[in-house]
Amino acid sequence: MTDTADAGPKAKRGNRAGKGLTVERIFTTPGVHPYDEVTWERRDVVQQNWKTGETIFEQRGVEFPDSWSLNASTIVTTKYFRGAVDTPERENSLKQLIDRVVLTYVRAGKEHGYFAADQDAEIFEHELTWSLLHQVFSFNSPVWFNVGTKSPQQVSACFILSVDDSMDSILNWYKEEGFIFKGGSGAGLNLSRIRSSKELLSSGGTASGPVSFMRGADASAGTIKSGGATRRAAKMVVLDVDHPDIVEFVETKAKEENKIRALRDAGFDMDLGGKDITSVQYQNANNSVRVTDEFMRAVEDGSSFGLRARHSGEVIEEIDARTLFDKINQAAWECADPGLQYDDTINAWHTNPESGRITASNPCSEYMSLDNSSCNLASLNLLKFLREDDTFDAATFQKVAELVITAMDISICFADFPTEAIGQTTRDYRQLGIGYANLGALLMATGHGYDSEGGRALAAAITSLLTGASYKRSAELAGIVGPYKGYARNAEAHQRVMRKHQAANDAVRTLDAMDSEVHRYATKAWADVVEVGAENGYRNAQASVLAPTGTIGFMMDCDTTGIEPDFSLVKFKKLVGGGSMQIVNQTIPRALKKLGYQDEQIEAIVEHIAEHGHVIDAPGLKPEHYDVFDCAMGERAIAPMGHVRMMAATQPFLSGAISKTVNLPEDATIEEIAEVHLEGWKLGLKALAVYRDNCKVGQPLSDGRKSAKSEKVEPEKVIEYRPIRRRLPKRRKSETTSFAVAGAEGYLTAGTYEDGKLGELFLKLGKQGSTLAGMMDAFSIAISVGLQYGVPLETYVEKFTNLRFDPAGMTDDPDVRMAQSIMDYVFRRLALDHLDFETRSFMGIHTAEERARQLETGSYTPAETADDDVADELESYSQSVGATTRREEDAPAESDAAVSSAAVEPDVRSGSGAADTRAVSGEIHSSAELMERFQGKAADAPMCMTCGTKMRPAGSCYVCEGCGSTSGCS
């Protein structure tokens, strides 16, 4: 094994006599502040609800680096800037936000003895600032909400509560959940201590059972809006598989889903957010069953399994394990609940068993620890560590992980907590949750299929290095500021789990130079973890999880969230001043180049993806490369077991678990869900949730191609829509253009309707009666009939421009100086004559005057809208759905009409030409809705309650691309 240099801030490997961290530089330059290394600009942020048109947010003159996307700056402005809008107290610069957080961390680090000297604190400040400024990582949302403000300094997003079998405890559960939801976070708990409805009370009556008390908690959660926002609370409810009420718990939400269907068929509004959905119970929580190895073995063997009384532990009922397992799978098939949590696996990796078992998780199932505890999260942006030569910078990745885990631990020193019990447990055990985002984009960019051995090997090595580096720093911190208070009684167990992680790292089989290099650093890190930890102990009981990274993923301009693959190959972007476009993911050209394709091939493949939304039959793309571009949705969606195998590859290197849902197609069977649940257990996962498309009324996935037998009600009428031909009037205007391409002369006649829209064309080439003239007449008739039946001219322009055949070369047209064929010239000329500026700009077609203006001013914008300020403003575009963002210094008081009518030039950075951008329908407001157009299906996601945009999956939650709202913990 090759030794590696110490990474990141260094600590003495001794006892508490250590003098603090000596911090080394990673990115920064001595004597230069990170803010001085970037170019800043002022922008206006205006956000609207797409359903109502109502302006829901407006702040002008916010300051961000010019490298930040408009979407990222919009979400940070709306979500994280503190202070009332339109008051002097309101933050208006990213500098203020980062300083508010970072300086609080640095102050606390100094006060609690983390740094060897003031110089080290300053370097720590600059490195943390640089990393946040350049989107290398992000803390979880509560940090941005609360740190450095007058509000309580809550830094945790994930909470686990506890409840006992008493009315006082149950009512206290309701109250504690309410305070956590009010603060914008989520909570989970296990209800298994509550006596079942089959057991007696001390008074002689029968107990209500946990399911009855879930009704009260659900109603409470449904009325509390998280953090003052419009999204509902996020919560997790867990019940042990041996609880006597387990069957009732398993079937609870499935029965409610049947009720929803009945009410829908009766005419009630049962969609998510519908006015009648509130009458249905248990919809505010995710439900999970805690299964044991004993139960799963009984399922395999087909034997019986005992349900036990809560107080005495005696078996009060014997059931067939396979029958109960079938009920779990049936319910998950019907409504996606319950998920499974594998109790013995979770507790086998528990570093603090002497302090109590792990019984529950947070709402998204990635944080699993002691009752009444919390975890603050941070995630690294993996693409930031991919060098220009497509190698992964493992050394810098380790340094940043150590820097971030240090900051996360410091935050516990000053953090506030919603209850004293949670605060005490968190301060005693100091659980942290470092993770990452952009794994799917990283794998694609490096030519790895998500469901491939190479993809899993790289993901495993990166995850191992992340957690190894974090525990290495935790052991070093223990030598400076002491181990966590609960370490002494759990030292043996904690060290045993560290050796388990190390053994899992040794079992990783690398396949290429990239994952081998990462694995080499991970192996060295785990050796240090075991060695230094044996001497110092550890500062943190837990170090890592894989969270959804919804809102902070947008803050970091990530293409993919958490451990997820890419959502789809084509993304939706909103344009400044109105309009929208689809754009092929920027990762795809890089991946194709990595796979050895040439620029012309890349352009053709990207063009195919832009039109079809998938890579199947893309010209020149080898079938063996298809899997590199497989996504969560679409024609080549990753198979369910592909998701399970990726989770299994990374799970042994995480303190906690993974927030992820395994999606199955609508026609998946109950047996297939059972296979996923069994394999998740066998492969060592800690938790698993499935979602079968179209299993919920509130999130329909309706496929127009599905068979009639799947519909309960046959339609009375079948209406067939056919295109209608709009014939030209007998007398119509036409224009004839003579042209020459490489000396070959011809005539183009274009006839129009009264409104000026093109309706016919005639091409005259060669002598009358010749074969060429006959072919041109037939071609002209075909194009003309298509135009009259409604085929858009831009479709023909896309298809016929860039066709190459002789004659090709110079033309006599000053606007089209070179043509690759006569067809190329003809349709470029038609585009210039009959398409608006914005549409043809997407295709890269401009007049000679526009090209000249671009050379002079950097803008193609026509003369009537060529005011430099307006043009500069309009040539930026927003990724935000529903957000209009402009540069302040270039924004005089133009009218809304001027802005909306002006042309927009997209920023095409992929190097694949204009083929990767095109206009989309005004009815499309998100990537999820864009996928509907490609698939012919309604997107399987709820609508955002803030801005009305259709959300998309992020881990086991949903995230809005427009405003950054999430359906779960941040």
Automatic annotation (TrEMBL):
Residue span of region Disordered: 853-920
CDD domains in the cross-refs: RNR_II_dimer (cd02888)
Residue span(s) of domain TSCPD: 721-832
Domain annotation Ribonucleotide reductase class II vitamin B12-dependent N-terminal: ranges: 45-135
Biased composition (Acidic residues): 865-875
Compositional bias annotation for Low complexity: 894-905
Annotated InterPro entries: RdRp_reductase_class-2 (IPR050862), RNR_2_N (IPR013678), RNR_lg_C (IPR000788), RNR_NrdJ/NrdZ (IPR013344), TSCPD_dom (IPR024434)
Enzyme class: oxidoreductase
Residue ranges constituting the Ribonucleotide reductase large subunit C-terminal domain according to the UniProt record: 156-691
Enzyme Commission number(s) of this protein: 1.17.4.1
SUPFAM superfamilies: PFL-like glycyl radical enzymes
Transmembrane annotation, as ranges: none
The entry's keywords: Cobalamin, Cobalt, Disulfide bond, DNA synthesis, Nucleotide-binding, Oxidoreductase
Reported function: Catalyzes the reduction of ribonucleotides to deoxyribonucleotides. May function to provide a pool of deoxyribonucleotide precursors for DNA repair during oxygen limitation and/or for immediate growth after restoration of oxygen.
The name this protein goes by in its record: Vitamin B12-dependent ribonucleotide reductase
Species this protein is from: Flexivirga alba
